[in-house]
Amino acid sequence: MKATIDIGQPSQTQHVPPSPTKTRRYGWIVGSLAVLGLGVGIWWGAATYVGILDRISAFERIPIPSSKVTMISGPGMRVLYVEEARRTPVPVLRFVVVDPRGRAVAVQTYEGDLRYDVPGEPGRIGRAVATFEADADGAYSIDVIGPNTAGAIVAMGDDVARSSIPAMSGSIALLSISAVGGAVLLGQRISND
Predict the structure, then answer these.
(1) Where does 60-158 sit in CATH, by number?
(2) Are strands 138-145 and 94-98 parallel, antiparallel or unpaired?
(3) Quick check: pTM over 0.90?
């Protein structure tokens, strides 16, 4: 009896695919996380936007020209905005701010271009024009000096852009990661079929 040995033939290894149950379970988990991430990202962005609108609606309004005493609690930068009809040039205004101790507060020109649509008033926008630093709690006197053109008013509040950047960035990052995860999962699903 002769035994034959085949030399020179490559050994063939078979690829064993992962268990379909594990693959399906993994797909459902990743898919669920992607959908959940998209939902939370959309909710987070919408909640941030509604919060911005609420803050803008709560701004203190001051007619032009006029003088107003307003209570400020909590130190920090305050922004003075001019709210007026869209495409109306911003009137040249001067602001005089006096703190609760009777001292003049430096008013600076706003650096940048911050605008918002005035909630509930279609066709009107607010533009940041000046800032001042409130360093103590109490009554601040604000004088707005200048001509009133087309019913413009001054609104005072926080910097809506700076305080909203972290939440908006987080929302966009979550949406992006979820969308990419969902797209990768969909691509794998299509290539396996």
Answers:
(1) 2.60.120.380
(2) antiparallel
(3) no
